[in-house]
């Protein structure tokens, strides 16, 4: 059944687990994620970006998630808007059956220009009021995602700040976080701690200089009852880089967020863990393997079935690692 983010994260906090929020764009991703959730008896957050809504269409997305809820009656599902850029995006998502929205006011509507603190408080507070009036949850974001190594947002094609960012912008200020949550009444708070979107997060195995778990600890100390959200949480596992690159891919060597660090974060109040890149890599790795090994193949299902299996395996691992397994 569909539930709200608030309902799910309250349970996660009570029992000390984290919930992966997997991005969804199509039926194959939905089936793979829910098969994993069913196998692990886990609740799950399905999140759709503005790009996903444009790709599949709101009606298709809604009916698809309704179908998944019907096919997997034992699993609680949250349907969440990822990185809403203004009121209209968030409110139209709710009208289309989303039970939760992210109002990302860390950036202006263009999702490229860092916004002022006052703008962020104002728009996030306004969306929260409207969402709560109809029973939906809201995730806000304070701090700008980006690399502490380069000062850049990372992802070139998606959302992400343009230009160089300072350490002050890249690490959420704990005192400001307290003020922000009080002022906006958001249900969950996305923080910046040195992670960024996409595959190219770190140029080496991250340490405390470039992945600031200390920031999460400091925020949790001041806001022990706030559900924290970690964006850019793909681990970019070596086995998936190898799967892609040994079948014709040319991804440069890169490092993501180690699963152990995410697990440490979960012990420090992280409840929602956003993962898109790993899912993309799992499916793409499987596609490439089929294409390389069976060049005569042209039935898309012969590509989709192994891709779904690879994604299901990844999701199962995350449910087990984050303690979500057994909690649906
Ligand atoms: O925020 C980034 C997510 O990975 C969604 O990406 O906007 O390309 O769907 P997208
Ligand atoms: P990744 O690119 O690390 O998977 O992050 C996804 C994300 O934060 C979506 O909001
Ligand atoms: Na989100
Ligand atoms: Zn994100």
UniProtKB/TrEMBL annotation:
Its cofactor is Zn(2+). Zn(2+) 1 binds at residues 83, 197, 231. GO terms for molecular function: fructose-bisphosphate aldolase activity; zinc ion binding. Its EC number is 4.1.2.13. Keywords: Calvin cycle, Glycolysis, Lyase, Metal-binding, Zinc. GO terms for biological process: glycolytic process; reductive pentose-phosphate cycle. This is Fructose-1,6-bisphosphate aldolase. The lineage of its organism: Bacteria, Pseudomonadati, Pseudomonadota, Alphaproteobacteria, Hyphomicrobiales.
């Amino acid at each position: 059944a569909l539930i709200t983010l608030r309902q799910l994260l309250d349970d996660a906090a009570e029992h000390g687990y984290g919930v992966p929020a997997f991005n969804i764009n199509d039926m194959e991703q939905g089936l793979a994620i829910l098969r994993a959730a069913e196998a692990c008896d886990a609740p799950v957050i399905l999140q759709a970006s503005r790009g996903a809504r444009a790709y599949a269409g709101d009606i298709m997305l809604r009916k698809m998630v309704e179908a998944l809820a019907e096919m997997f009656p034992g699993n609680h599902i949250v349907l969440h808007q990822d990185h809403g850029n203004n009121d209209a995006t968030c409110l139209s998502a709710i009208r289309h059956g989303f039970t939760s929205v992210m109002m990302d006011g860390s950036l202006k509507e263009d999702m490229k220009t860092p916004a002022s603190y006052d703008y962020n408080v104002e728009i996030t507070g306004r969306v929260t009021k409207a969402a709560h009036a109809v029973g939906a949850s809201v995730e806000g974001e304070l701090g700008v995602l980006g690399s502490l190594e380069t000062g850049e947002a990372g992802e070139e094609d998606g959302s992400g700040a343009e230009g160089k960012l300072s350490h002050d912008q890249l690490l959420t200020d704990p005192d400001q976080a307290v003020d922000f949550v009080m002022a906006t009444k958001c249900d969950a708070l996305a923080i910046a701690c040195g992670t960024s979107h996409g595959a190219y997060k770190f140029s080496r195995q991250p340490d405390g200089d470039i992945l600031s778990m200390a920031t999460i600890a400091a925020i949790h100390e001041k806001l022990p009852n706030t559900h924290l959200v970690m964006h850019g949480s793909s681990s970019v596992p070596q086995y998936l880089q190898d799967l892609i690159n040994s079948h014709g891919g040319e991804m440069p060597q890169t490092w993501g967020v180690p699963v152990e660090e995410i697990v440490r974060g979960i012990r420090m109040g992280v409840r929602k863990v956003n993962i898109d890149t790993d899912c993309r890599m799992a499916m793409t790795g499987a596609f490439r393997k089929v294409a390389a090994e069976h060049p005569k193949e042209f039935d898309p299902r012969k590509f989709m079935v192994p891709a779904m299996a690879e994604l299901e395996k990844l999701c199962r691992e995350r449910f087990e690692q984050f303690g979500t397994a057994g909690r649906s």
